[in-house]
Fold these 3 entries.
Entry 1:
Amino acid sequence: MNSTENRNKSVLVLNYGCSANRAIAEGLIGTLKNNLYPIAESVEEAEVIIVNTCIVKQNTEHRMKSLLLSLPQSKNLIVTGCLPVVMRNWIIRSVPHAKVLLPESANQIIELLNKESVNEYKIVDPSVWSQLYTDRIHYYNPIITPIEISRGCLSNCAYCIVKKVKGKIRSRSQESILSEIRSVINKGSKEIWITSQDTGTYGWDFTPKQFLPSLIKSITSIEGKFFVRLGMMTPNNLKYFRSELISQLNNKKIFNFLHLPIQSGSDSILHTMRRKESSNYFIELVSSLRQEVKELVIATDIIVGFPGETIADFSATKKLLQQVKPLIVNISKYTDRPGTTAAKMSPKIPTKIKSSRSRELSKLTKKITETNLKKWIGWKGTAIIDEIGKKHDQFIGRNTSYLTVVIEDKLLSLGQLIEIEITDSGSTYLIGEKNN
């Protein structure tokens, strides 16, 4: 089949996982549109289906596999994302009609559709895989743009499969990142998500080594009205640039928000996980950040039921959360991931105990979140409208600390910057009104 016929094929891109995957999916759709491929809206309409997969958790892996098995074999299927990197044999065995596109070769999607050869190896050079974002024209949300600044990380956490998928840190040049950000801002984007597996190690692979605050400073110097959300970073790495980061967080273009995953409050479990920070370090870090950054919101991640987790270990996690009181806590029940050190560890925690601990933590963190949110009632300041709500005349905004604010006002529009007052709070969000 020649390329002219291929161009008539409608393509559906199904995307799952993190904000980096979202960036890749947007790049794929943009490339397809630039090459005149119709973008399908449903499986039934599509002739080609591209599935951008995620496997960070076991239940997500099962979901991806079930999806691939459920898609009609009459469709041309392409599997990309994390699954084919570590489970290609499963794809060959279970969905033999599927083609594989490694995520770092995603910019070669047109060659694959034209049945030309595509790289089957990891591309170390970020200037190659970042070509996917050249002349980016598609966005799931025209106001929000995730910008992938690097891939991989320098940690070696015992439970994590992402390192196996993404490899060591490979940072894009500042020039490449700034060029993309300028482009999307000129196209109307108002909210930039800086994303990576660990944004805190951006530039550590450069000679001489660079640090994240230098990039942030360059981003905030770009003209225009926009906000920047910093992505997840390992708490231990902040000790190398804490003061410089604080300086940038106090810039009005940066959301006063940090995602700092601690994973456990037990130093014993943190050591077994091969995490480099201690619970006391985390507590002191958050305390100092809050003292120097006004209205700073902290998000963190917790894994319950890691192999060997005792009642005392779990109690230490509860104590840490009660002391730090992070407004946002992402709780995951531990599951073995193939090829990780933790998968071989014992004793395993029974599923019933993991579920019980997860419920207990969820109840605790729900109270912490609700209490934190109530403190925002009466707050006045700027918010950006970045989503349309589920109800009629309802909009979703983010205040300067990246907290979700629900506003009912039929005169609002996406991308609008407005002055608001917080009038109430829900379980995970604030309720606000536009100041006249």
Entry 2:
Amino acid sequence: MKRFILFCVLFFAIKVSYTQESMGIANSNYAPTQSVHLNPSSIVDSKVWLDINLVGMGAYVYNNYFYFPQASAWTRPFPEGLDHYKLGNVYRGDVNVDVWGPGFTLNLGRHAIGLNTAVRSFTDATRIPAPIAKFIFEGLKYAPQHDIEFSDKDFKTTSLTLGEIGLSYAAIISRERKNLFTGGLTVKYLSGINSIALDVESINYNVQNDSNLYLRPINGKYGIAEPGFGAGQGWSVDVGFTFKKMLDDVGSYVPFSSMSDCSVKDYRYKLGISVMDIGNIKFKKNSVYQEYHNTSNAWLGYDTASFTNLGSVDQNLSSNFYGTSPTNIRATSFTTWLPSYASIQFDYNFGNHFFANLTAIQGFRIQAPFGVHRRSTIAITPRYERRRWEISLPVSLHDFRKIQPGVMLRINNLIIGTDNIIPLIIKTNMNAADIYFNLKIPFFKNPKCGGGGKKHKKGKKGKSGKKGHDDTCPAYQ
């Protein structure tokens, strides 16, 4: 069953998914409903006047312990067996699943607004000790590790599922000569659906045989919220700024307005910085929080334990796993922080629709008391942009260790891509996979701009009767 579940997770990630960063589209000038999730200031001067997201969905899966040997997405039959790496003393893994609902971004000249909806799920396992990873892989019946005193510390696993509604606002802050500076903010209301978190500071344990486990002692905490909409509530914010070195003077530039020929000006390069997903959810409904200090106990007959709901899970953990102690702390609520991160984006325009981007993401964990950790990433992405289609070839360094090449294609209303194309084209030891897609409707012209994008002839009379003025394309300020 354990192997079947992991197979299902990886298989789902290959078939329909939306990755953690989606580097192939994250910096596009023609996809503001996607770029807002990396830097909210990107929506104010994009090349799309109104961008409507219909749906996007998927998952991102990575770990550095389990893998399917010599497999690809098209392998038939798919390998039934799993193998594992022998890398070191600790391991890690991530599973991120996102479903993006209806949303939009709208340019209002020097300002822009947006709305996004989503259901997001994160699972993060950090610093899993090798003996525990081996027990997960083989099961607690693995005899070579029986009756051995193990001592480990500082390992965590956190799972968080939430629904969110986000409102975005961005504006041109300053424009002088060829320098353009923009800023943006997204505020999101979060509805917690589920969270399970374990933070072990130190533990000594002995798996005596296939039914008895001894803990002496253990220090740490855990939190469990029974799944359900409205299990928790919270807020988060995204903040971003972008500096652009433009090709032309932008002293009076207003995107999609008559004073700018109802168009958007190009830049030579741009530099963005953002801080994302700063926020948390407090779970209070059907939730349990437990701290344990220097607790020792024996779990006899763990192979017959039943985990059917929150009550049974908590009962087994409290009475068998963590025991009782006068120094333990118990509560009916806890807080889980989102996978916060800071990002820097540099984009260069080589001309003739060719661009290259360098994006660095540094994840950080906020603990109060639990938090999901976002892995750090560096990506270099060359791309070719046109209004109706675009192609990019991202190369990502995941967690500053694993290089993954990808590809993205945008054709009219459809975006489809992957930041890890290897499992899709060749057989390899597959321990990570993703494909992302979005269906959207872009509008490239302000409908009040009549001829939209065409230069207005000097001396032409507009509705006001004055020369050189065209009221069909208002100049937003």
Entry 3:
Amino acid sequence: MLIDKLQKAADYGETLGATYVELRAEALNRSNTQYEDGRVRSISQRIEDGVAIRLLAGGTWGFVSSSDLSLNGLKDSVKDAYSLANSASKARKDPIKLAEIKPIQESVPLKVSRNPTDVDPKEKIAYMAKLWEETQRLDSRISAITIRQRDGIGTKCLVTNEGTQLELGFGHVHLWVWLTGKENGKITGARDESGSTAKGWEYYEDNQTPDVVAERLVDRVKKQLAGSKPKPGSFPCVLGPKVVGTLAHEALGHLAEADLTLQSAFAGKMGQEVAPKGVSMIDDGTIKGGLGTSKYDDEGVPTTRVELIKDGILNALMTDREYAYKTQLPPSGNARAEDYRYVPLIRMRNTFFERGDAFDDELFENIDFGYYCLGVAGGQAQMNASFQVGIQEAFEIVNGELGNSVTNMSISGIATEALLKIEGVGKDTFNFGAGRCGKGQEALISDGGPLIRFGAGPITFGGKA
């Protein structure tokens, strides 16, 4: 059995002198399809299998990835990883140490109704063709579409010299769509992203049918085509779940990843007030149906709910075992690797603001002029908490009521300053959105929250190039 071979290779690493040995073997059957304007642009299917070997020797990491899963091949890779660590340890002053965890032996299969790899490619293409047809039927101004659908399902085996033995089923279905509309020389677009790591192809049949996705996208394009240009400047605003989620993840969440915190705007602020009382932000790897949910992370640590900001106070950080030891915080189960070719890094899973105590309608009261921002068309942030986010669905707020739709808007600011200007958090609406996070490697994530009102000052509104 593969588990037995991995265990023998882990034990071999210990005999070489490694203090910690970890082997993560993966086999994933993956497919990718891209569809543009009525035709298939590309389609592929492949099986990706291999092993990641990571070990500590001389207080330094050594890492090797390989596609050779024979016992001799595993031992050779362990030996190579040990040699790398041993060579690098000579220049290291502070040895790496790991927080202790309880070794776990468990098998956790992934059960889906329809394995996406068993679905005929013709059916996948027909889904995308139907989506394109539906958008054109709903609005004649729709001029172009790009659809990227990908899926995969497989098994991951994690074995360490400490006694951890995990066999985990994993997989995903993921849909990314960009729709373009054109009228009287005005061109605009809308982006949509959805997916699941808990369901197979049935996700598209039960939740994201072509008509549902098409209606959502066309509605956004209509609002963009009808919208007016935003007024530049700083105004009070109410941000919807998708925009709130983007801020939680991009502009704030990365600051609370322990391997980045010392270089971030959250450095030295543990236990301090970073938001008004009543504001809480969470990263949770246990939420049912979350795109970033799993029972264990890629170090074999059970995933947890991490209360990053609790009642306005910076309360916790996301950790892996190395940074849990360095910070003396508990291991939070946030170590994730894109696949066997990568080392695990501290990554977010499902990141969100908690509900507050205000009715949604109350958040708009007494705003003479401002903006209500709902949809996101991409964003970026820096470690100093500065951010810029494209908004693909927004409305003016005039005298506490929703006014005209707004097109091609962007917002920017310093997220840590914006936190302190939160004036109300809603308790009615609460949603998650699907996304992808890059940190040298990709991870599927969810983010979201309730409606949140911000005072004028820290968020600046402008047009999008």
